[in-house]
Every structure is written in structure tokens, then in C-alpha cells.
Amino acid sequence: MRRPGFFSNVLPIAILFMFLTFNGQAQHRLVLLHPTVSNIESMEWMVENKVIDIPGLEMIGVYSAHEAYDFSLSDRFIVEHHLTNYKLQKVEGEILPGDIYRENNCTHAFRKLFEESDGILFFGGPDIPAAIYGEKQNFLTLVTDPYRHYFEVSFFFHLTGGSRNPSFKPFLIDKPSFIVRAFCLGMQTMNVAAGGTLIQDIPTECYHKNTLEETAKLPGNAQHRSSVAPLYPLSDLFGGIFHQIRMAKGGYLMEIAASSKVYGPMVLSAHHQAAGRLGASMEVIATSMDGKIVEALQHKTFRNVVGVQFHPEPAALYQPQARFTTLPGSDFSPNELLKQSNSLGFHQLFWKDFSEKVRKNKPHR
Fold it and tell me: Which helix (H) or strand (E) holds 79?
């Protein structure tokens, strides 16, 4: 994989907005939350290879100045690889837990990003602090970047609103067809922002398994991340797992499944938490095959707001040459696995439909 280095792009937020609004050639604009090198690289590959097919697309990678990740790595990656359709925006305002579900230091930034884009993508990541959703924290919940969660949960709340402040007017009231997609942590953020909670550890709470060895013996469709990889800490094994999901009747994913004629597609998961009590206006549109885990949510009012617990966004899923190592000396092709299970078309249609919806929006000039 190409490795980034250092380049700094630090400007006051008002000046940043001035620069980010003014690419005259951009027809459409997507906001990417948490624009790490791997997220940028994956999205760039999908755009270059028409998995995401949106002419004149500009991507704005947005992050909080208080996040733990070193975004100078992303800055340098963009510069070194001449990605003229990518820009980064650092938002300086600090959000504390008591500020998440109300207007705060980032509200103006959130509003500008919403008004000047055609869609927003929320990516995966580490565990959300349980206090954000009103619960005590399980020993197995590992919080490594709390300020990222304060920022992203608040942004999602500003977009869709939620039961923790029902008088707040969400941004999407002004543009109900606005497009939001959320992956893994992103879907958990979506549910928490709406007033929901999380299952803090799937193996112990849902399957009553307390060791990696026990969890690894569960049927494949009952596993949601690799329980084998941590047993080989020096081998750098793939931490995800592929399993089927079950579509609910109606809902966005059933439309994709019907188009692809695959109603139980294989998907990639790498998580140990999941949606618990549903937030306001959240509708379950897919579950695990045993029904224990929510695999996708759709907003009941803002129908273009969709979260999936799995990962359709890694470029490796669409690259025939990519291989994952699951055991020392053993690897496989995720692309071939999706082809053999007739699931690749489901993933491709997910992004085709997303691209078509973005293209239908009024282009930026």
C-alpha cells in the first residue's frame, strides 16, 4: 500500500470554507467524515474504477481538530498523489458531551457542510463512549478517540434530530432527499444520534460466549469479526469476517437485493458492538440471519439516510488481485468470495444506486 508522509493544511475555519466552496469544475460534492489515508485511498480507487460513478465529483474530508488521528498523513497523501478532487477541512470548534444534542461550537460548520454538499459518508472506527447514549460502560468497550465520537454523533444529530432533544429542528427538514450513508461505526453513530443505544459486546451479550475460542466455534453467520486473528497477535491477520444478512420486507436494501436477485448476500463485518434500543425514526431493514443483530437501518422520514453495519466501502472487495490472510499461511480473495456467492452484484448495485441518487441532485456550479 502507498504510504503517506507530512503536509500541513491548517487554516481558520472561515477561510477554509472560502476555499472549499470554489472549485468551479466540481459538479457534485461529497463530505467524508474521518478522512484517513485508507478511507481516501479506497474512495479514490472506487471513483477511478467507476464503482462510484459521479462525474465532476469533489470530495471534502472533514474532521475535528480534537480527533486522535494524525491528519497531516492524509494531507501529504493527497498532495503526493495529486488528488485535485480531494480537500481536507479541519473543524476547530470543541464539542463536549453536554453539547452533542444541541447547537454548539460546530453547528455553523455542520450547516455549511450540509448546504454545500450532495451527500455525506460516515465511516467505521472504534467504540463510542457509553455515556453518550446514557449507559454505563462495559469492560469490553474500548474508547480510543472520544472527541471523534462527540463530533460525529453531534453532526448526525444536526442532520436528522433525535429523541434526546426533540425540539431541535434537523437540517434535513430543509432538504428531505439529502443523501447520507453510514458504515459500521457510522450506523451505530446514526442510531445513537437519534436517541438509541448500543449492544456493547455481541459475543457475550447476544451469544453468551466469553472466550475467543468459544466464539470462533459459532456458525459463520453468527460471527461478526474474526475471533481467530487475536489468537495470532504477531501474524497481522485479517480482522473481519464474511457472513450473510437477511433483508426485511420493504426498505432500501430490499430494493438493491431485488435488483441483484440476491436476498441473502455475503457481506464483510468487523465489529463487536451493534445497535441496541432503536433511536427515533429508525427502521430495521436488515438483520443477521438469526435475527439477533441489526445489519441495516433506514430513517423513516428521511429515506435517503441509510446505515449498514457491514462494510461495502473497502476497495479490496472490488479488486480481483486483493487477498486477505485469515490464518498464518492461508489467504483468500474477497472479490472471488463475493463472486462465488453471487454477492458482488449486490455491492456494485449499492454504489450504482448511490451514484445515481447523487447525480440527480442539483449540480454545484
Answer: helix 72-80
